[in-house]
Amino acid sequence: MWIDIDDIFPPRKTLVGLQFAQPEDFARAKDLIARDLTLYRELYPYWSMLVVRQADVERFRAAGLQFTEIEQVDEEDLPPEDVAKFYREPIDSWKPILRERLLGRL
């Protein structure tokens, strides 16, 4: 049996984020994807967002759901300095916390 890696992890440029402003629409979207195990999906509850293949967006429109499309960007398509900055910011924000934990103050 041959499994294409792009079926499991599609390239970011073939995906789109669907961000839902209404909790009811987000709940309905989650119900919609729960029924189809072949549908690629990433679920981001904090942002009320699903990431799906661009080819599957029409399924959500046909269901009458309202959402904003969020472009997905692959790190490989960004300049190295942008990628480094992206990772540097959370590392820098955690440094003081981790330093205090190591010193036993937290």
Question: How is this structure best described in words?
Answer:
The protein has 106 residues and is an alpha+beta fold. It folds into 2 domains: 1-72, Alpha-Beta Plaits (2-Layer Sandwich); 74-106, no CATH class. Helices cover 42% and strands 17% of the residues. It is built from 4 helices and 4 strands, in the order H-E-H-E-E-H-E-H. The protein has a 4-stranded antiparallel sheet with strand order 2-3-1-4, with helices on one face. The model has no long low-confidence stretch (mean pLDDT 90).
List the helices and strands and how they pair.
Blueprint: H1 5-8, E1 15-19, H2 23-34, E2 41-44, E3 49-53, H3 57-62, E4 68-71, H4 80-102
Antiparallel strand pairs: 1-3, 1-4, 2-3
Short descriptors:
single chain, 106 residues, alpha+beta, Alpha-Beta Plaits, 2 domains, four-stranded antiparallel sheet, 4 helices, extended
Q: DSSP strand (E) fraction?
A: 15-25%
Indicate the multimeric state. single chain
What is the terminal separation in angstroms?
52 Å
Number of DSSP strand runs: 4
Average predicted local confidence, pLDDT: 90
Strand order of the largest sheet: 2-3-1-4
The major beta sheet can be summarized as: 4 strands, antiparallel
Please state the structural category. alpha+beta
Q: Do you know the CATH topology of the largest domain? A: Alpha-Beta Plaits
| Low confidence ranges | none
Radius of gyration: 18 Å
